[in-house]
Design goal:
- By secondary structure, the protein is mainly α.
- 43% of the residues lie in helices and 4% in strands.
- It is built from 15 helices and nine strands.
- A hairpin with a 6-residue loop joins strand 8 (396-397) and strand 9.
- Bound molecules: (2R)-2-(alpha-D-glucopyranosyloxy)-3-hydroxypropanoic acid (9WN).
- The site of (2R)-2-(alpha-D-glucopyranosyloxy)-3-hydroxypropanoic acid has 10 residues, from helix 2.
């Protein structure tokens, strides 16, 4: 399988990161920083495990789905235990916050990559028994988005920055300014193992907790018009559009029509169409309440995941390669940065405000592949493997030096490395 001279070492180390983070029930995102099972981490980890242990990969999906709520939502964190060294943990989210099987969870969701992961797992190791077990849960979750997170323009609307997975992205700055002050005292646990300057600020954390408080006060069931934080999210919409397509394929494997899921996917693509910004050559989120310009972030390239076949692909690739925006520059060779270097909010070492993230690179490799740019996908695939080979399995990376930041031995970085090594770019996908 190896594609790089050093890929056998890369492979072995990636396997050992996943093994060392395995709690027995789920693979933790990192050894110390994140003690629960996070939703989109679990999907990526499933893709990694699919290459080394399909039985364990299926269990990863089952563990996440234990947290599914009776209304269909799959929460952003499934804690699996009542006490964890994380804030906000199960007590803060509240007793009503648990999956049908009684497992404590958070009460918001995260990027729905799971159907995509299950499809990859099935293609590598077919099991219709497993699909029969999990496809109905995936269908219920995707329908939940239709009922609870769709606003007039057809985009997936997030009600907390944590739902996006890109927590302190400057995309959320303007909406966060509207959030009222937090009323409870709390102590941050996320800056114990990671330097505070690489994490969200105290003001951002206070806003995150304030939104949580208001959501808890309404039983985690806000009317979208009343939610304190609202954003029509191009990133989540792109991921769900792709996932609907993957879910349709899974329905078809089981002999059922995939028509509904496919038509939901098409509606999301139509909604994304309305987010195109010709001046920027990027897709742009819809700010629901204020009309301030949204900062220029990598989220704007991610509709590639839906398999675009318009001249817009060339504009997106231009942005990806532009040294002023996301591309390699003489003083910052690692790319894509999570925020454009030219954007005033760019901070190369702060979390989702500048660093390079291997999971985003994976999404873009697969997106370029699906949008008819295999040669560009291949270049980004090799670049990402090179970054990890030189600097190790970190949560995110400084685009200037490649230095690893955030949590060490990070599971999704290991998982995407396995997939990037084992599934080379396909020249013909569209
Ligand atoms: C809050 C686990 C998660 C990722 C998110 C990432 C970060 C949590 C945190 O870690 O978020 O959900 O405590 O900062 O932003 O994408 O899923 O890896």
């Amino acid at each position: 399988m190896p594609v790089l001279p050093s890929s056998d070492v890369l492979w072995r180390d990636a396997v050992s990161v996943l093994e060392s983070n395995d709690s027995g029930v789920f693979v933790k995102p990192g050894p110390r920083q994140y003690p629960g099972q996070w939703n989109w981490d679990a999907a990526l980890i499933t893709i990694g495990l699919a290459h080394i242990d399909p039985v364990r990969a299926r269990d990863e999906v089952r563990s996440l789905l234990k947290g599914q709520w009776s209304n269909g939502m799959v929460p952003h964190i499934v804690f699996h235990q009542a006490t964890v060294d994380y804030f906000p943990g199960p007590t803060t989210w509240g007793a009503s916050s648990c999956g049908v099987s009684g497992v404590p969870t958070s009460a918001i969701t995260q990027p729905p990559l799971l159907a995509t992961a299950v499809r990859i797992l099935h293609e590598l190791h077919p099991s219709t028994d497993f699909l029969e077990e999990v496809v109905p849960s995936l269908e219920r979750w995707h329908r939940w988005f239709q009922g609870r997170r769709l606003d007039g323009d057809g985009l997936v609307t997030i009600i907390h920055p944590w739902e996006s997975g890109m927590d302190n992205s400057p995309r959320f700055d303007s909406a966060l300014r509207e959030v009222p002050p937090v009323t409870t005292e709390f102590s941050r646990r996320d800056v114990v193992h990671v330097p505070p300057e690489q994490r969200p600020s105290d003001a951002e954390y206070e806003a995150y907790v304030s939104i949580l408080e208001s959501l808890r006060a309404c039983g985690y069931s806000p009317a979208l018009s009343e939610a304190e934080f609202l954003l029509g999210d191009v990133f989540l919409t792109s991921i769900l559009s792709r996932a609907e397509d993957d879910l349709a394929a899974l329905h078809e494997v089981l002999g059922a029509p995939g028509t509904e899921a496919r038509s939901r996917s098409e509606s999301f693509m139509a909604a994304l169409d309305g987010c195109w910004n010709e001046d920027r050559g990027l897709f742009v989120d819809h700010e629901r309440r204020r009309k301030t310009p949204v900062p220029i972030t990598v989220a704007g390239i991610t509709p590639l995941l839906t398999g675009l076949d318009t001249p817009r692909v060339a504009r997106l690739v231009e942005a990806l390669d532009d040294p002023q925006r996301f591309g390699p520059a003489p003083d910052a060779q690692w790319y894509p940065t999570s925020v454009a270097k030219s954007d005033p909010s760019f901070q190369p070492r702060c979390y989702w405000r500048g660093p390079v993230w291997a999971n985003v690179n994976w999404l873009l490799v697969r997106g370029l592949e699906s949008s008819g740019r295999p040669e560009r996908a291949e270049a980004l695939r090799m670049h990402t493997l090179d970054l990890v080979a030189r600097h190790g399995y970190w949560e995110y990376y400084d685009p200037r030096s490649g230095q690893g930041l955030g949590s060490e031995n990070f599971s999704w970085t290991a998982a995407v490395v396995l997939d990037l090594i084992a599934r080379p770019v396909s020249p013909t996908q569209r």
